[in-house]
Design a protein that fits this description.
This protein is α+β, with helices and mostly antiparallel strands and 181 residues long. The protein folds into 2 domains: 1-30; 34-179, Immunoglobulin-like (Sandwich). It is built from 5 helices and 9 strands. It has helices at 2-29, 34-38, 109-112, 124-128, 165-172; strands spanning 47-49, 67-75, 81-86, 92-98, 103-108, 116-123, 143-146, 150-158, 176-179. A 5-stranded antiparallel beta sheet has the order 1-2-8-4-5. It has a 4-stranded mixed beta sheet with strand order 7-6-3-9. Strand 4 (92-98) and strand 5 form a beta hairpin. The radius of gyration is 21 Å and the shape is globular. The N and C termini lie far apart (73 Å). 20% of the residues are buried. The model has no long low-confidence stretch (mean pLDDT 85).
């Protein structure tokens, strides 16, 4: 009887290990992640508005139809990026994801406290190369350190009424994602 209990416990432990390994490895080995689906339609270091969500949207499924969205596929290999996005009337947010979809930073219009969200995106190595005399902790300059050199930036804005969606989409078209030079 004890032998069967030990076999059962061993099987459960082995099954748990296999399950956890599969769950943790899936984002890294998936071939149709968000970055791969958006690569053909988004240039590097530029915001591109996403089309209105549909029932079978192949790019980004299950999006909220009350939000307009733009995506910037960033690459920090050429240097840091300067990001600027206008703040809309209701709600605006900017979220940062690594190449494999791990979120590493997010900011919204209330946290920005201005009429636009402005920040610099760079790797830790690029930040260490900033001149020492430059005040990088100034309140007027927000610096975000990316853990990887490639990833996605998703800009979302809420349209409180369906009739406001065109104005919100127009506001998102003025968002900028480019080099600091």
């Amino acid at each position: 009887m004890i032998r069967w209990v030990l076999w059962l416990i061993g099987g459960l432990v082995l099954g748990g290990v296999v399950h956890l390994t599969t769950i943790l490895m899936m984002p890294r080995i998936a071939t149709q992640d968000a970055y791969s689906r958006l690569s053909p339609v988004t240039p590097v270091n530029a915001f591109v508005p996403l089309p209105e969500p549909g029932a079978d949207d192949p790019l980004v499924p299950f999006r909220d139809p009350a939000f307009a969205a733009s995506v910037c596929r960033f690459d920090l290999g050429g240097g840091p990026l300067k990001l600027q996005a206008p703040v809309t009337q209701a709600y605006t947010s900017m979220s940062f994801y690594t190449r494999v979809g791990v979120p590493f930073y997010s900011i919204n219009d209330r946290a920005a406290g201005r009429r636009s969200i402005e920040l610099d995106l760079m790797t830790a190595a690029q930040r260490s190369q900033l001149p020492e005399e430059e005040d990088v902790t100034a309140a007027d300059r927000l610096i975000v350190e990316a853990p990887t050199t490639a990833g996605l930036i998703v800009l979302r804005a809420l349209a409180t009424e369906p009739s406001l969606m065109p104005a919100v989409r127009d506001a998102l078209t003025s968002a900028r994602c480019g080099s600091q030079q």
